[in-house]
Amino acid sequence: MDTEISNVIKLIFPEGIPESWTVNPDFYAYLSKLGGYTVEQMSKEPERLSEEKAAVLSQTQELSFSNYKTFIRTAECSREIFQQFNRAEGSLDALVGRVPELTARCEEFARASSEIKIARRLNTLTLTRNTQLLQVLEIPQLMETCIREGHYEEALQLAAYVRRLAGKHGDIPIVATIVSEVDSAWWALLHQLIAALRTDLQLPR
User: Within a domain: residue 203?
Assistant: First the structure.
């Protein structure tokens, strides 16, 4: 700090100055300006400062009166914006709180969609193989017809086909049911053949 300015500060403010003034460049600029004043200018400075203060106060009041609507509107806008921020913050908190539920529902939807997709594929496959499925379902009835009409060779071929089918798809419930029904017919055929062997057979001449 300049010695001249330091002396002026001690002269005007013998008890010292506030800490905030020491870092204010305008304060030091004003002190430098005072250092260049004459005695007459220095004696008039308090009056000039009072007049300047009064002028500034008057301008401030005039500005307030002429723009009070703007100030009020600005205050209302600030309050409205603050309230909107509060509402937005509350909505955001609520949204964040529901994220776990939303995640769980999305996962549930994904699982349901996957199950529906699998079921649709099975339905499509069932429709494309409808004729074959009907033929397989009719095997027990067809075998009973063959046995009843004495077409034993065809009945044996059907039984052999069902056994091969059981070896590949025996874990499917409907296939297991067909195998069970064909086995029952097979045993009936076997008993019928044994009974026929016990009777007198006519040899061809």
Answer: no
Question: What's the average pLDDT block by block, 10 residues per block, for the chain (205 residues)?
Answer: 70 78 81 78 84 88 81 86 86 83 88 87 72 80 86 86 84 86 85 75 52
* Contact assessment for residue 102 and residue 109, using Cβ atoms and an 8 Å cutoff: no
The conformational region for residue 199 under phi > 0 = left, psi -120 to 50 = alpha, else beta, is beta
Structure tokens at 69: 């609507």
Tokens of 186: 């097979």
Identify whether 204 is part of a domain. no
pLDDT of residue 193: 78
Asked if residue 44 and residue 83 are part of one domain, the reply reads no
Specify whether 185 is located in the same domain as 148: yes
Residue 138 to residue 144: CA distance in whole angstroms? 10
Those residues whose C-beta lies under 8 Å from the C-beta of residue 158, and which sit 6 or more positions away, are 139, 142, 143, 146, 182
> Is 88 in the same domain as 38?
no
pTM above 0.70, yes or no: no
Per the structure, the complete domain to which residue 167 belongs is given by 131-198
